């Protein structure tokens, strides 16, 4: 009841959400030229005559005179002119329509792509905005433009449609109008030039507009319209708290393993074929079937799958409840079942299955099939009473009655208990709890007779001396029958719940293991272990062409041939099937969402099990499907990761090429220009000019050498090839050396050093740390305004050396501050006016990190500029090493 109310509430909320905005009506066609726009305009005139405020937002006439004629008389919002590649294109003026706010607007061709520069990239996004504004929209679309059918249309026509509409747009659907035209008439219109110009029409007839393609697209359009109508009706009824009323007629065939299962499957298949409807074969398992029944059900399920149907095992204490519940949730309209046998006392104990379905399934068509075997049996045996119980059940009823008599005798003689009816009722309940209803009925009858014969006066006769005694024993019989019936039903419910619980637990364990699997090998390992644990049999899996896991057993050559066949054909093979049945393993294909095979799973049941139980088959198939979905997920994740790596590699490659092309060519150009000037005009220059050109060559050459060294250092850092050869060096010497290098390359830079002479030397790789400090100082000099000083301060803080480099530049936004240590960051920001490859700070971070330190970017003083802080731990050399590393 709670689930029903929850579904009703969810459906009601969705209905209210759809009604809150405008209403969407879609005119759906199988192909261009069927008359969608013509039909929409015709209905728009009807709405206009009724006084509805209708406007035309945009209608594509494609030069068709009859369509253009229908535009006359309809109010139109002027189109917006947009320039694109020296062409003037027209688009719907969305803002004008919103300002006009009509009751209904016509927007043709929902899948159309808008002119670049429009507010939305696609026209369906314009339509969604209109709906959100409370404006009703009529639009047109062809079936090939639905996103979910893109692959299907590709397989049918060989043409990949690029302009698609997400199916979620149609979730706002209020009404759908199917505009249909037979393929022959559409081809005639095409040949007459009513769809395309003659040249385009000739090409279309040879490709997209072939009769076979149009027939398939027409079927897709009809199916989509039917699905949308069925969904709308189902949601409406759910919002009202009413049951599902199926429109697509699914046929449900119920079998019970009573000797007529395969006959019913064949009859059900013929009924479904005549009605062009999907069909499913089910059986309701309430207790443990005998070997013959189980074998018949397995054969019927296999036959149903071969004939193109589905097979499913249901659980429940009541066959009628299970069938009706399944039918209500799967859009079933027709129930097919065999004629149920009338049981003795059936009217007193319960109605037959047929009677229950007829009484409770008022919305279903119920077809009752009488098999030839049943009719022949009826002619031979007439109305003879069938056997109520098997030998085992009879023995259990007799044993329980005998024990009840013994306990009653002891209780009467030595305990003094005179009301002995409860002893016999307990015996009936025990029999009902351990067996079937028929055994409980037999136990109730035997206990009734034994109680009367041995303990009701006069004893040792079936006569009853007092009227009260007659009432007592008959009330005892009724109580025993009712208690036995209730106990039997409770047992069947417990059996069904245990089976469902085992199924759910096995899949839950498998799901937990698969969520942790990150590769096909891990998926195969987790799937194999879960299958072996759930089915108590060796399992084997192969995902793709190479990935496999053998586990405790591996298939032989004959078995592998069956596995290869199952993987190639996407169908079960091996044992328990009709394909390579001599194999010891039962193989199931792993199928993805498009019914493509991505692997195979094998299970080897012991030879002592000649048949699979329906529970085992259903559980194995469900678990194999879960494994297939997990394998598909890992494959998609791997593909996504490869695409991400490829994109990142391409991004870095582009950044590197861009950086090299700009930053390496600049010093080269200066060097070549200076050398060329010296070569051509050296004699005409004085010594100062020649020295200036030589100095330019030297400075730019050293600058080029730094860029190349940065690239090499970055490569060494990335491959962990940077060796740390430590030595003692003073902090003032280290910073001073870096400062002198910087002023040599950039004489105009002002440096303000604050390095206390009391700082002790540090144990580092001098060249690497000097390069790191130089990179930070050079970076600060680049972004400082002319004349502003770059401050460098060194302090000992909390046992670590802290070197701060502060510039007076524009600073770095908080959200970008962490990114300055990324490779090519300056290139990504497009700062072409600055020198540098964007590797300096990245290399600095790597060099300092190799020493166990860190580099941070912090805001500058008073919110201006940037502070780069280098922190180095004060390490000591190992006594055994001393200065060996130097």
Write down the overall geometry. extended
The number of E-state strands comes to: 24
Rounded Rg? 42 Å
| Low-pLDDT stretches | 342-350, 378-389, 827-837
Overall pLDDT confidence: 77
Largest sheet: 5 strands, parallel
Portion in helices? 40-55%
Category by helix and strand content: alpha/beta
> Strand fraction band?
15-25%
Helices, by number, come to 27
Biggest β-sheet: strands ordered side by side in the sheet = 2-5-6-1-7
Primary descriptors:
alpha/beta, 5-stranded parallel beta sheet
Report what the structure shows.
The protein is an alpha/beta fold and 886 residues long. A hairpin with a 3-residue loop joins strand 13 and strand 14 (547-549). Helix 16 runs parallel beside helix 18. It is extended, with a radius of gyration of 42 Å. The relative contact order is 0.04. Mean pLDDT is 77; it is low at 342-350, 378-389 and 827-837.
């Amino acid at each position: 009841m709670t689930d029903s109310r929850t579904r009703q509430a969810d459906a009601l909320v969705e209905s209210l959400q759809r009604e809150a905005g405008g209403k969407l009506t879609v005119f759906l066609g199988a192909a261009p030229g069927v008359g969608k726009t013509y039909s929409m305009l015709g209905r728009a005139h009807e709405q206009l005559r009724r006084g509805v405020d209708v406007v035309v937002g945009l209608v594509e006439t494609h030069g068709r005179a009859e369509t253009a004629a229908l535009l006359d008389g309809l109010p139109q919002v002027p189109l917006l002119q947009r320039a694109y590649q020296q062409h003037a294109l027209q688009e719907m003026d969305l803002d004008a329509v919103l300002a006009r706010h009509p009751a209904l607007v016509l927007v043709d061709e929902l899948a159309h792509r808008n002119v670049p520069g429009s507010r939305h990239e696609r026209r369906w996004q314009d339509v969604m905005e209109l709906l959100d504004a409370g404006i009703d929209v009529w639009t047109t679309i062809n079936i090939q433009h639905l996103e979910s059918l893109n692959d299907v249309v590709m397989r049918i026509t060989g043409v990949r449609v690029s302009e698609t509409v997400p199916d979620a747009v149609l979730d706002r659907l209020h009404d759908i109008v199917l505009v249909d035209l037979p393929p022959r008439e559409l081809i005639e219109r095409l040949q007459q030039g009513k769809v395309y110009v003659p040249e385009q029409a000739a090409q279309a007839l040879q490709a997209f507009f072939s009769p076979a393609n149009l027939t398939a697209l027409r079927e897709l359009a009809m199916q989509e319209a039917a699905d949308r109508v069925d969904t709308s009706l189902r949601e409406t009824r759910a919002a009202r708290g009413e049951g599902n009323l199926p429109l697509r007629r699914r046929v449900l065939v119920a079998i019970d393993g009573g000797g007529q299962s395969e006959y019913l499957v064949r009859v059900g298949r013929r009924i479904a074929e005549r009605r062009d409807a999907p069909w499913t074969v089910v059986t309701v398992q309430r207790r443990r079937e005998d070997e013959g029944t189980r074998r018949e059900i397995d054969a019927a399920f296999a036959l149903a799958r071969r004939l193109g149907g589905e097979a499913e095992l249901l659980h429940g204490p009541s066959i009628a409840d299970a069938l009706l519940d399944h039918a209500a949730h799967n859009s079933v309209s027709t129930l097919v079942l065999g004629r149920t046998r009338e049981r003795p006392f059936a009217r007193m104990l319960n109605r037959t299955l047929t009677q229950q379905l007829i009484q409770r399934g008022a919305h279903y068509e119920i077809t009752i099939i009488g098999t030839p075997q049943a009719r022949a049996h009826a002619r031979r045996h007439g109305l003879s009473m069938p056997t109520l119980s098997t030998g085992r059940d009879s023995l259990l009823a007799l044993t329980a009655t005998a024990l009840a008599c013994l306990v009653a005798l002891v209780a009467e003689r030595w305990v003094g208990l005179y009301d002995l009816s409860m002893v016999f009722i307990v015996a009936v309940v025990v029999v009902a709890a351990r067996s079937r209803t028929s055994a409980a009925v037999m136990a109730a009858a035997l206990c009734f007779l034994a109680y009367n014969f041995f303990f009701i006066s006069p004893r040792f006769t079936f006569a009853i001396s007092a009227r009260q005694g007659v009432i007592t024993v008959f009330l005892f019989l009724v109580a025993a029958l009712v208690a036995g019936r209730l106990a039997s039903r409770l047992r069947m419910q417990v059996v069904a719940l245990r089976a469902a619980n085992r199924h759910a637990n096995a899949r839950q364990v498998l799901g937990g293991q698969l969520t942790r699997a990150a590769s096909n090998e891990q998926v195969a390992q987790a799937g194999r272990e879960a299958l072996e644990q759930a089915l108590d049999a060796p399992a084997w899996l192969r995902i793709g062409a190479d990935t496999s896991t053998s586990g405790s057993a591996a298939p032989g050559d004959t078995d592998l041939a069956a596995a290869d066949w199952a993987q190639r054909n996407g169908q079960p093979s091996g044992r328990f099937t009709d394909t390579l049945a001599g194999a010891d393993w039962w193989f199931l294909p792993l199928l993805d969402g498009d019914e493509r095979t991505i692997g195979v799973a094998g299970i080897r049941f012991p030879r002592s099990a000649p048949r699979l139980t329906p529970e085992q088959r259903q559980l194995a198939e469900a678990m194999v499907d879960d494994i297939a979905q997990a394998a598909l997920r890992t494959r998609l994740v791997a593909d996504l990761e490869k695409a991400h790596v490829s994109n990142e590699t391409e991004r870095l490659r582009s950044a590197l090429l861009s950086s090299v092309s700009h930053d390496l060519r600049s010093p080269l150009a200066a060097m070549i220009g200076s050398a060329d000037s010296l070569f051509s005009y050296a004699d005409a220059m004085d010594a100062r000019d020649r020295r200036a050109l030589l100095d330019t060559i030297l400075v730019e050459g050293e600058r080029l050498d730094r860029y190349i060294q940065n690239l090499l250092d970055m490569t060494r850092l990335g491959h962990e090839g940077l060796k740390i050869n430590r030595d003692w060096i003073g902090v003032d010497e280290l910073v001073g050396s870096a400062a002198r290098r910087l002023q040599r390359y950039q004489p105009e830079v002002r440096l303000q050093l604050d390095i206390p002479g009391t700082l002790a030397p540090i144990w580092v790789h001098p060249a690497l740390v000097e390069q790191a400090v130089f990179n930070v100082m050079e970076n600060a000099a680049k972004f400082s305004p002319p004349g502003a000083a770059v401050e460098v301060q060194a302090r000992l803080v909390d046992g670590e050396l802290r070197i701060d480099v502060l510039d007076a530049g524009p600073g770095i936004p908080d959200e970008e501050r962490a990114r300055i240590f990324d490779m090519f960051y300056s290139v990504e920001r497009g700062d072409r006016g600055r020198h540098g490859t964007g590797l300096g700070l990245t290399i600095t971070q790597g060099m300092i990190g190799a020493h166990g330190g860190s580099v941070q970017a912090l805001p500058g003083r008073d919110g201006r500029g940037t502070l780069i802080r280098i922190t180095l731990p004060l390490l000591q050399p190992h006594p055994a090493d001393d200065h060996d590393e130097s």
